[in-house]
Amino acid sequence: MWDNRRYIIQGAFVLIGLVFLIKLFAIQVLDKDYRTKAERNIIQPIVQYPFRGLIYDRNKQLIVYNEPVYDLMVVPKDVAIADTTEFCELLGIEREVFLENMKTARTYSQVKPSVFLKKISHEEYGKIQDLLYKYSGFFVNPRTVRGYTSPVLANELGYTGEISRRQLDRDTTGYYRSGDNIGITGLEEQYERLLSGKRGVSYKQVNVRGIEKGSFKDGALDTVSVPGTNLITTIDLELQTYAEKLLKGKTGSIVAIDPSTGEVLVMATAPTYEPKMLSGREFGKNYGKIASDSAKLLFNRAHMATYPAGSVFKTVQALIALDEGVIKPNEQIYVDLSGIGDHAPAGYYDVARGIEKSSNNYFLEVMRRLVVQRKSPNYIADSRIGLALWADAVKKFGFGAPLGIDIPGEASGLIPDVDYYDKIYVNKNWGYSTVQSLSIGQGEILVTPLQVANLAAIIANRGYYIQPHLVKGFEKDGVVTLKQFEKKYTGKGSDYYPAIIEGMKRSAIGTYRAPIKDIVIASKTGTAENGAKDESLDHSVFMAFAPVDDPKIAIAVYIENAGWGGRAAATTASLVMEMYLKGYIEKDWRNREEFVLKGDFLDEEQKREIERKKQEKARKIALEQQ
Amino acid sequence: MRRRDSILKNLDWPIVFLYIILVVMGWFNIFASVYDPETAFNIFDVSLSSGRQLLFIGGSVILIIVILLMDFRIYESFAPYLYALFILLLMAVLVFGAKINGARAWFDLGIFRLQPSEFTKLATALLLARYISNNNVKLTEFKHQLTAFFIIFLPVGFIMLQPDLGSSLVYFAFVLPLFREGLPAIYLIVAGSFALLGVLTLLLPITTIAIIVLIVGIIWIMATSRSVSNIVITSLLILLSVGFSYGFGYAFENLVPKYQKDRILVIFDSNSVDPLGAGYNLNQSKIAIGSGGFSGKGFLEGTQTKYGYVPEQSTDFIFSTLAEEHGWLGSSLVIALFVILMIRITIIAERQKFKFARFYGYSVAAIIFFHFTINIAMTIGLFPVVGIPLPFFSYGGSSLWSFTIMLFVLLKMDMHRTQVLSR
């Protein structure tokens, strides 16, 4: 009876066996996922963070180095803390922070180490080092953060920080991992690939308790870390420090260039911050403060800010006119004061006098000759041709587009051209009269302090410039590689330069606080309208180079809301040039240094004017409210 | 000497051979699972499980000799006393037992621990065999079915109190020998249907299940007869099924402790459960098995095994050691050996002249089958993780000895199958 049922039972045995064989085939042979998971189980990559490249100044003085910090690591399983309060006090953290961090670590893994507290400074580590043995499950992992020899150059150097989620997503190299440091602004960002070096990884096998069990595949996959490339900058650290000292308490910037090489000696902006504030454990706290400051501390005015060009632009007008041949160096032009408002008197002007006196009406005539060249009988068509020629010529001086300095964020400025005016005047009926305010650097023209410093370098070089740059070479394994640059010529000729330089020399002599004892300088003052229709003054602008016959330094200084260029900016530029050329400041009755450091640039007349404007405004407001 | 010759001549050597292979393979795998490349312990070291397993294997040899020397008739005559003794031990273990892994299932005897539920299976098998072999007992009759179920489920009741879900499940193995002896197939069909319904409840929403059941019911009516009684009965069954599904779902949601719920849910969706928590064992076991590949990483070369990633690896998860180090080939070999062993046992059972021995033989095959199925299924994620050992393979004296005794009692009976069994 029921004998056949034996086959059902035996069949069940075979069936289950087959089910197992198939399922096992699926997970063992077909599914490769488990092999990866198994490796992930046992492999613990130990990252060796590379040393980030150092940054030197032009004289091989160290500016940025690496400072050891310590990440406190935790293996949650091994943690046994008798007195949490004591532990928190030792580390200087709140109890809530302790609990939060422990929770995070536990979520990651009970047995694998994770970061408990980041970037403990060397000093802090010294304090806890001897007591750490009492707390099982904690150990430190050394890393480095950026250290700075001087509290300057914050905006030019930039800072480093942990790579953000967004940057990780955008990274196409596949190099970066969460937790990596990356250069965020300035040179740190520009030269990130060179500075960062290469991470080293050694793969260790660990058992389930996180204990090392030798290297994975005998270290075949391990890599050693490669330190980053050192940067040799063009900055003169001492001069930079002096320049930043002069700018303290003001709003503005200084750019100084070695004209023969295009090397940027000084790039200073104010207000700014101390670079060490954005390094190490305090980064998060300080960054919020710095970034939200209404004074825009992360805004590098030297190459990001654009201003109306002002009178310094007259030198460009003169150079273009001479190059085009619309004026001759010695040509005397009679100027009356019928055109626009002018500080200069009426009379006969050659180009040198035009620059020396900064005659508005002289340059109005120069611009007219540039734009209205009678190449077309039609006034409007003729203006178009002339303006196109003018705009192209101006752009050759490095205006209207970034110069390509090697830190991010450089502004283009603006040189209005035919297209620009066609966009504004839809029916294109604009002519010379529309654009004549360009003649004296007003109107739509916008320039950066860097471009103006470059202009000074062009005049110093008598007709060419070299792309301004902050890094001149790279050092790797003791070998220095220098960057190569080409001269960029700005016009067809250069024999007319002496006339311009003569005008600038005389202009310098006529500027009370500009001249330097025993050194002949050439300069041009300027005043950039601040645009804001309020009681604050225009920006003080000054451009110069020295010595005239063998230029070593070309400079542009912008001091915002400080009035005439001849006062605040000229004095500052004079001091910086003297310090660079002589190494000291010759004291005299002008007390230039005290004048700048005090920062009270306005004379009595200007102060009265401000007062008057304020009262006027108050009256207006009162009237409007009635 | 002549008598010894006859003993060895009648012994079923294929089974003995399979037994030896499985036990020795188990022993090597136990060593692999506790092996640490940095310590100098060898396979014989008694401070390791492999060394102790060797002692248990030695004990098994002694047990085998004793069984082969003892009279084969005592098993039938002493079955009720043995059963009673183990029921008492199951009661005693609830009071005096040591609590290990949350279950009070073990007597701690100092040098080793004894798990009475492992041996109770043998006693239950013997008593059930004796009851069934009574000529008056017909498994087609409800009264006798009830008695048989009582014999089975009395020890289950006590084991559930420990609680030890895995060991309890194994008692359902007796359905197979009962089926062989005439238990109506409807029991298997109903049990299978409810099991299927239960699984579906965990996977699908209740409305979907209701629709499926309804369709199946309608097809059934169309296919059989459209008589009123058939329609009424089918309708009742549909209602019962949906009700069961609903009740089961509700009970699972609200009455089952979270850790057990997770153990079940992880089978269907490994992402639904914390891989470091309830899903840890299964996840790690699958990683070890899956990473073994086609031919394995080699003896003592399994990284997941030697670095201790799989918990309970020398006992319940011993199969993961085998699968990691010997791959699909090794796993397949062992699975084939088990299937051959079980089929061989049924062949032996079938050649018995007496119902008692035949039923007992099927019981042994069925118990091995359940252990084998549940154990391997749980290591590869086809069944919830319940702690039951792989016969002959897993580390542990109680398990090895109880299976050894069960198997060799059968072989002893088989040796005397031509002799008259009398009481």
Automatic annotation (TrEMBL), chain B:
Single Gene Ontology MF annotation: lipid-linked peptidoglycan transporter activity
Predominant subcellular localization, coarse grouping: membrane
Source taxon at top rank: Bacteria
PROSITE patterns registered for this protein in UniProt: FTSW_RODA_SPOVE (PS00428)
Topology in membrane: Multi-pass membrane protein
GO CC, any one term: cell division site
Protein name (Swiss-Prot/TrEMBL): Cell wall polymerase
Pfam family, one: FTSW_RODA_SPOVE
Transmembrane segments: 12-34, 54-74, 81-100, 142-161, 168-190, 196-221, 228-252, 328-347, 359-386, 392-411
Cellular compartments annotated: Membrane
Key words of the record: Cell membrane, Cell shape, Cell wall biogenesis/degradation, Glycosyltransferase, Membrane, Peptidoglycan synthesis, Transferase, Transmembrane, Transmembrane helix
GO biological process, one term: cell division
InterPro entries recorded: Cell_cycle_FtsW-rel_CS, FtsW/RodA, RodA/MrdB
